[in-house]
């Protein structure tokens, strides 16, 4: 049995899907709102939904009771910096206290290489806490989600990326469904993935190629090729992420990942799926 945090959200939801797909795992889902529609949909699919809060260690220990594995993800936007670190370390500490055998933590691509991006620094702090314990762990480091390009306001995001990357720069990206698959593989093959950190991407494209791929799949996107640099400064400390995208950025080994998971999606294949 695996306890999945964030199960009503993007990554956790994908992990639930991947675990249920094989029929080999029993899934328990953590949510603050077991009566909500997303939780009820999970219950209908045979998932045991438990109430809990990542900020409440006792609720985590109760939710992890009897679990073989835990998938851990935090929402940096809603938790805030100290909140995210506390939530991430709470999951690690509860896993130790309850004898969990394998913890899969979703961090972010480049967390170990770049400093000064607030929601990367928090994840690196959680990774270091995890690595210092005796737990068996796997860290997944996802790059940009393909879904950011189909969200409302995607054009504004693409304009910022175009400004940061320039005409020659590229960006790596991953479908959240594939994050789910890698989490499942980690639980299935601890011999291969215990103690490993995997930066995850299924595609690498320039901004013009991203827009073209979206257009070819019937999704028009309007973006500006070059915004004034002052716009980047206006978005605050997270602008550091965009400048890092332009300097070095994500560095997943996509061919190696595709050997592990041959179905790894490109942006085009994700859009058409
Ligand atoms: N967007 C990207 O391109 C990208 C790339 C790499 C990494 N990331 C990282 O991905 C993370 C977000 O992942 P996501 O998109 O999968 O998250 P999400 O779907 O936005 O997260 C929402 C989930 O978190 C749960 N949650 C939030 N606060 C909670 C709390 N206090 N206690 C228990 N559960 C809580 C929610 O559960 P309930 O509401 O049901 O309780 C829900 O299931 C961020 O940390 C971000 O930095 C994002």
UniProtKB/TrEMBL annotation:
Belongs to the NmrA-type oxidoreductase family. Keywords: NADP. InterPro entries: NAD(P)-bd_dom_sf (IPR036291), NmrA-like (IPR008030), NmrA-like_oxidored (IPR051164). Residues 2-238 form the NmrA-like domain. The keyword NADP applies. This is NmrA/HSCARG family protein. Gene3D superfamilies: NAD(P)-binding Rossmann-like Domain (3.40.50.720), UDP-galactose 4-epimerase, domain 1 (3.90.25.10). The keyword NADP applies. It comes from Dactylosporangium cerinum.
């Amino acid at each position: 049995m695996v306890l999945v945090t964030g199960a009503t959200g993007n990554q956790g939801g994908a992990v639930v899907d991947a675990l249920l797909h094989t029929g080999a795992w029993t899934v328990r889902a953590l949510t603050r709102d077991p009566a909500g529609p997303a939780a009820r949909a999970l219950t209908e699919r045979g998932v045991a939904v438990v109430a809990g809060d990542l900020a409440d260690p006792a609720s985590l220990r109760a939710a992890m009771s009897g679990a073989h594995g835990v998938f851990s993800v935090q929402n940096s936007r809603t938790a805030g910096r100290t909140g995210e670190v506390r939530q991430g370390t709470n999951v690690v500490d509860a896993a130790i206290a309850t004898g969990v055998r394998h913890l899969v933590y979703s961090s972010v691509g480049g967390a170990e290489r770049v400093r000064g991006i607030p929601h990367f620094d928090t994840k690196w702090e959680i990774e270091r806490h995890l690595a210092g314990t005796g737990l068996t762990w796997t860290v997944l480091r996802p790059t940009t989600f393909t879904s950011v390009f189909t969200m409302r306001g995607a054009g504004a995001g693409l304009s910022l990326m175009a400004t940061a990357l320039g005409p020659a720069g590229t960006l790596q990206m991953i479908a959240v469904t594939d994050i789910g698959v890698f989490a499942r593989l980690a639980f299935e093959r601890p011999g291969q993935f215990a103690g490993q950190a995997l930066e995850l991407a299924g595609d690498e494209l320039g901004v013009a190629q991203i827009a073209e791929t979206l257009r070819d799949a019937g999704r028009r996107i309007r973006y500006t090729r070059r915004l004034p640099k002052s716009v980047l400064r206006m978005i605050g400390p997270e602008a550091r992420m965009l400048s890092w995208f332009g300097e070095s950025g994500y560095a997943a080994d996509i061919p190696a990942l595709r050997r592990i998971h041959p179905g790894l999606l490109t942006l085009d294949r994700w859009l058409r799926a």
